[in-house]
Design brief:
Blueprint: E1 2-14, E2 19-21, E3 24-26, E4 31-32, H1 40-53, H2 58-61, H3 73-86, E5 89-99, H4 109-120, E6 127-132, H5 138-141, E7 145-156
Helix pairs in contact: 1-3, 3-4
The chain binds zinc ion.
Length: 158
């Protein structure tokens, strides 16, 4: 059996924090506000994986309490993979679209792809990370934050 899931996340910029996307710290740009490291890419992918398995979402799995304050979301993605594995699910592939007017993300997508693949224990070519803008429209266009859409495919391995 195979199942598909979708995820969406958005965070506002916070000048006081480092910018972490897909487990990669991107220099010289404001970070994102949030309880964890606010890695919007890892969050959207985690929600897509949990959605595919019908196992809720990352907000339920990692509530905004002391335990998860400042947590590394790429590590939480590994926790999601383990949770799916315990229910007999293996990750097939994930695809994410990061929506940001700035910074320019193209130089970082390969490293993000690699970090996500390692965290999910799947081959590099089974992870896709793309970056786009909204041509100046909406909250991402106004430079207020970053959003990410993700889709994930999982298969039952018994
Ligand atoms: Zn988030």
């Amino acid at each position: 059996m195979i199942r598909v899931g979708t995820g969406f996340d958005a965070h506002a910029f916070d000048e006081s924090r480092p910018l972490v996307l897909g487990g990669v710290t991107i220099p010289d740009h404001a970070g994102l506000s949030g309880h964890s490291d606010a890695d919007v890419v890892s969050h959207a992918i985690g929600d897509a994986l949990l959605g595919a398995a019908g196992m809720g979402d990352i907000g339920e799995m990692f509530p905004a309490d002391e335990k998860w304050r400042g947590a590394s979301s790429i590590d939480l993605l590994g926790e999601v993979r383990r949770a799916l594995g315990s229910q007999g699910w293996a990750v097939v592939n994930v695809d994410a679209t990061v929506v940001a007017e700035r910074p320019r993300l193209a130089p970082h997508t390969v490293e993000m792809t690699n970090r996500i693949a390692v965290s999910l224990e799947i081959p590099f070519e089974m992870v896709s990370v793309k970056a786009t803008t909204t041509d100046g429209l909406g909250f991402t266009g106004r430079g207020e934050g970053i959003a990410t859409f993700a889709v994930a495919l999982i298969e039952n391995v018994g």
